[in-house]
Write a structure and sequence with these properties.
heterodimer, A: 292 residues, alpha/beta, Rossmann fold, 2 domains, 7-stranded mixed sheet, 8 helices, 32% helix, disordered N terminus, B: alpha/beta, 3-stranded antiparallel sheet, 27% helix, binds zinc ion
């Protein structure tokens, strides 16, 4: 080993790759592997202070930090978009601390950190999708006590959850829950999919990719391994429906992607555009090729 | 410097961990890990698991072949791990034969199923039984050889409690977590 490369090694030793120190990463890594062995179960971990406030995806950031490797190509999205303040700052954070390549293209990314959406483009084997999770406990609004929700999960006591969903049907004729719609993972644990629209729920089922969930404030990590059965809770007479607005994207014309409603003029005229900005760009490109 | 398991700790450990993520995510499929500085009796793969995951809160049980000064010193110096008995072990390392029976290892409790042992099975010199496996992480059912599949079937019956296994051989690693379902194809005699 020559003098030069020794110094380079020293620099790397002092500088923690992807920010977190090795001890913290070990603790998070153990939690992640157990989470993969017990799909949908929430593993407690000791969340660390991050250089951004809770609500900025500190759980997801810690999971990403524990998983990143130098040759990763990172994509960060917030509500489907790569260019929001939150997504930009997380992407910059890992460019700076891990020196990884970044992309906006879902198909080029090896690790995707997301808030509130699953990309429209089908994910592939070994791609990792890291979800930022505000409230990991799907039973929290039924039962505030952690000791009780733990028991409920341990005994698969999910009757109350179904009662709540059925009350919705009785009151509104359909299930009102449109985001964070609970799922059952591997036929066992009821799991919070994070506040994604229920339109995205079917993408979690039997995905070739690795899905990891990090909740910083609540200090929980959970996972859905690839090719795992993920079923949105429903009833025989009211089967689950992945709904979206029945319009086309005003940019790319897609009718099968999840749309955001935007107000386009002062008199309140509305329009719809893809929430997944990369997907919208790709569709627009495909359209112009067809026209050529 | 040369005695450290990884030459560039933070980076090599991240690469090692990614292999573990892949192996755990896709049970029954073999993944490759890199070489590291380790005691000669340990495989690179087994040493990688210990170095990447253990710290001073980890209880490690070493079966008799591995419970030697060189391994103990290496493990304690590099991770701070505690050498423990079977009952308290978070990580277990040994050959298949030396670890049987498995019933002393912790399988977690209903409220905390993750408080269970991770078993690292070294060497492939066990009686092999052809099995067909299915479950999370497995796209199409896979055929693999396992030792005493009845133990793995019993382990899966405990789900969501249970033991999680890594089979290690030189640079190769393969996982059989508690979630994997096992069907025996045929027993070889
Ligand atoms: Zn569009």
């Amino acid at each position: 080993m020559n003098e030069m490369s020794k110094n380079e090694n020293l620099d790397i030793q002092i500088y923690n790759f992807a920010y977190l120190d090795e001890n913290t990463k070990r603790m998070i890594r153990r939690a992640l592997l157990k989470a993969l062995c017990i799909p949908g179960y929430q593993v407690p971990f000791s969340s660390r202070e991050m250089p951004m406030p809770y609500g900025w995806g500190t759980g997801g950031i810690q999971v990403t930090s524990a998983c990143l490797i130098p040759k990763d190509i990172l994509k960060v999205i917030d509500q489907g978009a790569d260019d929001t303040t939150n997504a930009v700052s997380i992407r910059k954070f890992f460019q700076k601390t891990a020196n990884v390549a970044v992309t906006e293209k879902t198909s080029d990314a090896s690790l995707i950190q997301t808030r509130h959406r699953i990309p429209e483009t089908k994910l592939k084997e070994k791609q990792i999708l890291v979800y930022q999770v505000p409230i990991p406990e799907p039973l929290r609004f039924l039962e505030p006590r952690e000791t009780e929700t733990r028991k409920m999960h341990a005994l698969s006591e999910y009757g109350l959850m179904y009662v709540k969903l059925y009350e919705d049907i009785a009151k509104h004729g359909h299930i009102e829950t449109a985001y964070a719609y609970p799922v059952k993972t591997n036929g066992n644990y009821v799991t919070d999919p994070s506040p994604i629209p229920k339109f995205d729920n079917p993408k979690m089922n039997n995905s070739p990719a690795i899905q990891l969930f990090g909740a910083g404030r609540e200090q929980r990590i959970y996972a859905i391994p690839p090719y795992t059965n993920v079923k949105s809770l429903d009833f025989e007479d009211y089967p689950f429906e992945a709904m979206k607005a029945n319009f086309k994207c005003s940019i790319c014309g897609s009718s099968d992607s999840y749309l955001d409603e935007i107000i386009v003029s002062d008199d309140g005229k509305r329009s719809y555009i893809c929430s997944d900005t990369d997907y919208c760009k790709e569709q627009t490109k495909l359209n112009s090729k067809k026209e050529d | 410097m040369e005695n450290y398991p990884f030459s560039e700790n933070s980076i090599n450990s991240s690469i090692a961990f990614r292999s573990l993520v892949n192996a755990t995510s896709y049970p029954g499929t073999t993944f490759q890990i890199n070489k590291l500085n380790k005691p000669s009796v340990l495989s690179n793969a087994a040493a990688t698991i210990l170095i990447t995951l253990c710290d001073n809160e980890s209880n490690v049980y070493l079966s008799k072949e591995y419970n030697i000064e060189e391994v103990r010193n290496w493990l304690i110096f590099n991770t701070g791990a505690i050498i423990s008995n079977k009952k308290n072990a978070d990580f277990v390392i040994g050959t298949w034969k030396s670890l049987l029976p498995l019933n002393e290892f912790k399988i977690g409790v209903p409220e905390y199923p993750e408080r269970s042992a991770t078993l690292i099975i070294e060497e492939t010199k066990y009686k092999k039984v052809k099995c067909n496996i299915d479950g999370p992480g497995i796209k199409n059912k896979l055929n693999i050889d396992l030792p005493n599949p009845e133990f793995f079937i019993e382990n899966n019956n405990l789900y969501p409690l249970g033991l999680d296994f890594y089979f290690t051989n030189d640079l190769e690693i393969l996982s059989i977590p508690r979630s994997t379902k096992i069907n025996i194809i045929k027993s070889e005699h």
